[in-house]
Amino acid sequence: MRRRQGKRLNWRKPGLALSGFLLFTLALGLMKGGAGGLTPLLRNHLEVTNAADSMGFGWLMAYLVLSGSPVAAAAVALLSASVLSYLQAFTMIAGSRLGACLVVLLIGCIYILRGHEHWTALTAGILSLLLTGSIQLAALPMGLLILGRGWLDGLSIPALEGLAAGINWGLEPLIGPLAAFLPGWALFVAGVGLVTLSFRLFDRALPQMRLERTDLGQIPRLVYRPEVMFLMGLAITLLTMSVSISVGILVPLSARGYMRRENIIPYILGANISTLADTLIAAALLGDPRAVTVVVTHIVCAAIISLLLILLAYRPYERAISNALAWIARRRNNFALFLGVIFVIPVVLILL
Predict the structure, then answer these.
(1) pLDDT score for 320
(2) In whole angstroms, what is the distance from residue 144 CA to residue 132 CA?
(3) Which portions of the chain are predicted below pLDDT 50?
(4) pLDDT of residue 6
(5) Beta-carbon neighbour count of residue 151 at 10 Å?
(6) At 49, is the secondary structure helix, strand, or coil?
(7) Gyration radius of the chain over CA positions
C-alpha cells in the first residue's frame, strides 16, 4: 500500500507542473486576446499614458494579487497587443518587482502573530523592499537607455516560440469561442486569474522544505561570503520560479536565527536577477521579440548593477542598507512612515 501511494505522489508533482504550464500558456493567450479591450480603460479612465503611470499601475496591481509574476506576464501581454509601449512595459515590470516584495513583509507579519520577535521576523521583508527599490532605481535609466538605443532589439527564443505555436494551435478552439463570448477586459482578467492559478500549481509541484529536518545550523559558517549567497539566491529563485518563495523562506530562517542581515542582502540581490525567468518564458511563448527584448533588458540591467555592487562596492552598499533598516526598526513611527511611503509612491506615480 505504501509503495503504491509513493508512486501516486511521485506522479502527482509532474502532473501539477504540466497542468500549470498548459494553464500558463492558455492564460497568456487569453491576456493577449483581451488586451486590446483594456486600451480605453488604461488610457481614458486610469490614464496610464506614460512610463511613470505604468510603473505605478504594475506596483499596485502586484499588491492586489500578492504576486509580481502575473503582473509581469500581463505587462508583456499588453506590449504584445500594442497596448503598452516598450518603455511602459519595462516600467510596469519594474513596478511588479517592487509590489511582489509586499508578500515577504506579510509573511513576516504572520510570524509575528505566531509569537516571534517583531523586527527579526520583518527583516527579510524590509530588506527585500529596500534592495529591490535600490536596484530598480538604478536599473530604470540604464534600461530606458538600452531600449531607446535598440541595443537588444530582435531577440528571440526559437525553441520556446515553436513550442508555443503548437500549443496555441491546440488551444485556439478554446480561446476563440471565449474571445467571441467575453468582452476584452473580462478575457484579460480571466487570463490574469489563470496565470495566478498556474503559479500556484507550480508552487505545489515543488518539493517541500522541512526546516526541522535540515541541518541549517551549519549555514551561517558556510555562507558568510557575499558571492556564495548571491549565487544561492540566483539559483534558488531560478529553481522555484518565484521570488516570493525564494525570498519568503528567509523569514523563518531569519526568525529562527539561521540567517543574518549580512547573509540576506547578497541573497536577495541574486534573487532579483533570476526572478524574471518565468516572465522571459512568458515573453517567448507569446512569440513577440519585443516582449523578449524588454524582459532580457531587465535581467541584463539587474545583473550588471548587482554584480558591480557585489564585486566593487559591497561594503558601502551594505552599510547604507543596514543604516536604512536600523532607522526603520528604531521606532514604530518610523516603520509606519515606511509603510506609508511604499503605498503612497505608486499612487503618486499614477497621478503624475
Answers:
(1) 94
(2) 18
(3) 1-9, 209-218
(4) 46
(5) 11
(6) coil
(7) 20
Compute the distance between CA of residue 206 and CA of residue 290 in angstroms, rounded to an integer.
31
Angle between helix axes 69-80 and 2-34 (nearest 10 degrees) is: 40
DSSP code for 83 = S
The span from the CA of 139 to the CA of 300, in Å, is: 9
Q: CA-to-CA distance for 352 and 349, rounded, in angstroms?
A: 5
End-to-end CA distance of the chain: 63
Q: What is the model's pLDDT at position 349?
A: 93
In a 13 Å sphere around the CA of 260, the CA atoms on its Cβ side amount to 12
Residue 2: per-residue pLDDT: 45
Helix axis angle, 158-181 to 277-286, nearest 10°? 70
* Helix-helix angle 277-286:2-34, to 10 degrees: 60
Give me the pLDDT at residue 5, please: 47
Provide the phi-psi class of 214: left if phi over 0, else alpha when psi is between -120 and 50, else beta: beta
Show the cell assigned to 158.
526559437
pTM for this entry: 0.83
Residue 62 CA to its chain's centroid (Å): 9
CB 175 within 8 A of CB 30: yes
Q: What angle do CA 20, 276, 17 make, to 5 degrees?
A: 15
Phi and psi for 67 in degrees, rounded to 5?
-165, 145
pLDDT given for residue 146 in this prediction: 94
Q: Which residues contact 86 (CB under 8 A, 6 or more apart)?
A: 79, 147, 290, 293, 294
Determine what percent of the chain falls in helix, strand and coil, rounding each to the nearest 5: 85, 0, 15
Question: Residue 19: its pLDDT value, please?
Answer: 81
Q: What is the pLDDT of residue 321?
A: 94
The C-alpha atoms of residue 322 and residue 53 are separated, in whole angstroms, by 31
pLDDT for res 256: 64
Of 294, 302, 312, 253, whose CA–CA distance to 274 is shortest? 302
- 91, 53 Cβ separation under 8 angstroms: no
Q: Are 295 and 97 in contact (CB under 8 A)?
A: no
